[in-house]
TrEMBL record, chains A, B:
Pfam families: Aldedh (PF00171). It is found in: Cytoplasm. Catalyzes the NADPH-dependent reduction of L-glutamate 5-phosphate into L-glutamate 5-semialdehyde and phosphate. The product spontaneously undergoes cyclization to form 1-pyrroline-5-carboxylate. This is Gamma-glutamyl phosphate reductase. Residues 6-283 form the Aldehyde dehydrogenase domain. Its main location: cytoplasm. One of its GO terms (biological process) is L-proline biosynthetic process. NCBIfam families: PRK00197.1, proA. Coiled coil: none annotated. The gene is proA.
C-alpha cells in the first residue's frame, strides 16, 4: 500500500478512536494483548528470520541483541498492553475551565493528537509498546520500524490488528509503515495527515527527523548527563549517585556521562571515586588534573565530553568553582538530566535555576528521570525539546487540548 | 550585524532574563513603556517615512493602513507594555508536583522557552507587543518585521532597548532582525540558538515558515470558521451570533466565513438571515439552494468555501443533516473556531466531540475565542496546531517546563 493511502486510512480511523470511551480502548488493549500472546510462535519465528539475516549480514552483536525477541520479551510486550489498560485515560480530562462574567462557560479538555508517526530502530518491542500508548491516548499509530526488524514487526502488527478487529475497533489505528528510505521522507512531508512524529533511536536518526521533517516533531532521548560534585558535597552520597547513574545501566539516556568535581574537594574525593569506578570496571577519561592522579585514567578528548558514551566510560574533570561547572554543563549538556551533589542551599538553588534541562536534580540520581519512576505508568520517550512536552512523556503528553465554549446566545458585540 | 551574532547575543542575554524576578521584569516593562512614550515623535516620523515609501510604491490601502501609526496607536503600544507589567508572571509556577515513596521530591515548574523568533508582516505595533510578551515570560525576542516597516520598527526597537538599558537589563533580549529574505532562512535554520518561531501574518507567510523551518514553529492564525445552524436552533440566537461573528470585525481570524443551515429550518431561517446580512452589506456566496432564494446571492465557488475571506463576504450552504454539516466542517475547517447553534443536547455533544478544532462553541459567538476574552491579559496569537499550545496563547503558553528533583542521597539501584 502507498504511504499516503495508509496515512489517510489512519486519519479516518483516528476520528472514531478520538471519541471512543475508555472502556472501548481498554477492551482493545486486552484484545491486542490476547492476540499477541496467541501469536507468540509466529512472532518468534518471524524474529528468528530477522535475526539470522542480521547475523548473516554481519550486524554488530549489540544490534542483534536489540533485535532479538525471546518468549520473555514477548510476554513483556503482552503485559505492557494489559498495564496500559489499567491506567487512567487522559482524554477528556479538564485541564482548566472558568465562566466568563457574561455567563459563557469555557473548558479546556484533553483530546488526542490524531495520527502519531513513530520512527524507530531495531527493537521490535517498540512496535507493541508504541501502538499501545497511542491507542490508550486515542491516537492512530503509524509505525515506521527498521528494515532489519521487518519480519518481526509485520508479525507483531498483524497480531495487534487481529485483536483490534476482534473487538470492532478499526485496525487501521495501528499500521506498520514499510518500504525504503523514501517512505520516511514521505512521512516527514505528510503535514495534515500526520499530526506529530516521534523518532526513537540513536542521535543520527533523531537529528535526521528533527531537521528534515515538515510535520511537527518531538525530539527524544539524547542524554549527555552531568554530575557536579560541589565543594560541600556529602562524599558518600556523591559516590552512591555516581555508581547508580553510571554503572547500573549505562546504555540508557538518563545515565551519567561526565562528572565535574569542585577543586576544593578533588584531592579527597577523586581517589575514592576512581577506586570505586575501577571496581565497577569503568574506564575514566580525565582532564589533566584527573590523569595526574591515577595511571588507569585515559586523557579525555573533546569528543568524550561531547558525546554520549552509553557504555562503562566516564569523563571526569576538575572545576574551579560552581561557575565553571555551570559553564561546562551549559556548553556540553544535551538538556536531558543534570545533577548536583551539594550541601549548600545557595549552590542547589543556582544549579536548579540556571541549568537549562528537562530535569535538574539535587542529591539524587538522574536514573529517577523516567516515566515509570515518575509514576506515569507508561512512557513513549523522554523529550529533550522545549515545545509541547519536556522530560518523560506519559499518556497526557500524547494529547493536545480543545476549548469547549458554551453559551446561551451571548455575543461579543 | 550578522543574524548568527544577533542570535548568540539573544541566547546569552536570555539566560539572565530566565532567572530574573517578576519585579525586575515589570520594572523593565515600565521602562520600555516610558522610553517608547518619550520617543513618540521619532517613531511617528520614522513611520511617516515607511508610509510614504509604501504609498509611492503603490501598496494596497489596507496594507498602508496596517503600516500606519498614529499617536493613539503609539499610546496603545505604551499601555500594552504597562498592562503586561500588571499580569502575573508564569515563570516559576508549579504545574504539578509529588513526593515519591522513597522521599524524592519532584516538581514541574514553568520556565521560559529561551529565544523566541517572531516573523511578522506590516503592523509595527507587533514590535512592542511581541517584545513585551516575550520579556514578561522571560524570553529574548528576535523580531523579524517586514521591510516595509523597517524605519518604524527600528525606531520602536531602539526605544525599547533604551528602556531596558535604563533599568540594567541586557538590551539584547529585544532585537530587530533586519535584512533580506535570506535572513528569514537563517532564522528558520537556527536550531540551538532560536528555541521557537512564531509567524504572524497571512497564510502565505505562515505556510512558508511552517514548512521551511528546522526550528520548532507554532502555527497561528488562519481561521476558516463555520457556523452550523441546526434544525433545533433558536433562530434569534443564530442571527445574533451570525452578525456578531461576521460583521463586527471581519478581518480577524475568529470571524465567521461559512454558515451551514440545516434543511429542516432553511426555508424559514434563510430569508431572515439573508435580509439581515443585506442590511449589513454582506455579500452572500450561496450554494444552489441559497441562490434560489434571493437574487443578491452570488453562486459560491469551491474557493469561497476553502479560503478565509476576511471581508464582508459569507459563504452559505444548506446541509441535509448534522452528519453533512460535520463532513463539511471536517473538509474545510482550518481548525480554529467552529460553532453550532442548536437546542439539542445530542447535537451539541456530537459537535463538540467530533469537530477537531482549537475551539468548539455552542450557542455563542466565535469572537469570544481570543486571549483577551479568555482573560489571559495578553495574546501572542491563536495557535491552530496541536503541539504545545492550541487556541489563544497567553503568557503561560510562552513557557516550557523543567522538572526539579530533590533528594537526600536516594539512588535507584
Amino acid at each position: 500500500m502507498q504511504f499516503s493511502d495508509q496515512a489517510r486510512a489512519a486519519k479516518d480511523a483516528s476520528r472514531s478512536l478520538a471519541t471512543a470511551s475508555r472502556a472501548v480502548k481498554d477492551a482493545a488493549l486486552h484484545a491486542m494483548a490476547d492476540a499477541l500472546a496467541a501469536a507468540e510462535e509466529d512472532v518468534l519465528a518471524a524474529n528468528a528470520r530477522d535475526v539470522s539475516a542480521a547475523e548473516e549480514s554481519g550486524a554488530a552483536p549489540a544490534l542483534v541483541d536489540r533485535l532479538r525477541l525471546t518468549p520473555a520479551r514477548v510476554t513483556a510486550m503482552v503485559d505492557g498492553l494489559r498495564q496500559l489498560a489499567g491506567l487512567p485515560d487522559p482524554v477528556g480530562d479538564v485541564v482548566r475551565g472558568w465562566t466568563n462574567p457574561n455567563g459563557v462557560q469555557v473548558r479546556q479538555l484533553r483530546v488526542p493528537l490524531g495520527v502519531v508517526g513513530i520512527i524507530y530502530e531495531a527493537r521490535p518491542n517498540v512496535t507493541a509498546d508504541a501502538a499501545g500508548i497511542c491507542l490508550k491516548s486515542g491516537n492512530a499509530a503509524l509505525l515506521r520500524g527498521s528494515s532489519s526488524a521487518l519480519q518481526s514487526n509485520t508479525a507483531v502488527t498483524a497480531a495487534l490488528r487481529r485483536g483490534l478487529q476482534a473487538v470492532g475497533v478499526d485496525p487501521d489505528v495501528v499500521q506498520l509503515v514499510a518500504g525504503g528510505r523514501e517512505v520516511t521522507k514521505e512521512m516527514m512531508a505528510a503535514r495534515g495527515l500526520v499530526d506529530v512524529l516521534i523518532p526513537r533511536g540513536g542521535a543520527g536518526l533523531i537529528n535526521a527527523v528533527v531537521t528534515g521533517s515538515q510535520v511537527p516533531v518531538i525530539e527524544t532521548g539524547t542524554g549527555n548527563c552531568h554530575l557536579v560534585v560541589d565543594a560541600t558535597a556529602d562524599q558518600d552520597v556523591a559516590l552512591g549517585i555516581m555508581v547508580d547513574a553510571k554503572v547500573r545501566r549505562p546504555s540508557v539516556c538518563n545515565s551519567l556521562e561526565t562528572m565535574l568535581v569542585h577543586r576544593d574537594i578533588a584531592a579527597e574525593f577523586l581517589p575514592r571515586a576512581l577506586a570505586v569506578l575501577a571496581q565497577h570496571e569503568v574506564t575514566v577519561h580525565g582532564d589533566a588534573d584527573v590523569v595526574a592522579l591515577d595511571d588507569r585514567v585515559v586523557p579525555a578528548t573533546e569528543e568524550d565530553f561531547t558525546e554520549e558514551a552509553l557504555s562503562l566510560d566516564l569523563s571526569v574533570a576538575v572545576v574551579d568553582d560552581l561557575d565553571a561547572a555551570l559553564a561546562h554543563v551549559r556548553r556540553y549538556s544535551s538538556g536531558h538530566s543534570e545533577t548536583i551533589v551539594t550541601g549548600s542551599v545557595r549552590a542547589a538553588d543556582r544549579f536548579t535555576a540556571e541549568v537549562d534541562a528537562a530535569a535538574v536534580l539535587v542529591n539524587t540520581s538522574s536514573r529517577f528521570v523516567d516515566g515509570g519512576e515518575f509514576g506515569f505508568g507508561a512512557e513513549i520517550g523522554i523529550s529533550t525539546q522545549k515545545l509541547h512536552a519536556r522530560g518523560p512523556m506519559g499518556l497526557a503528553e500524547m494529547t493536545s487540548t480543545k476549548y469547549v465554549v458554551v453559551g446561551d446566545g451571548q455575543v461579543r458585540g
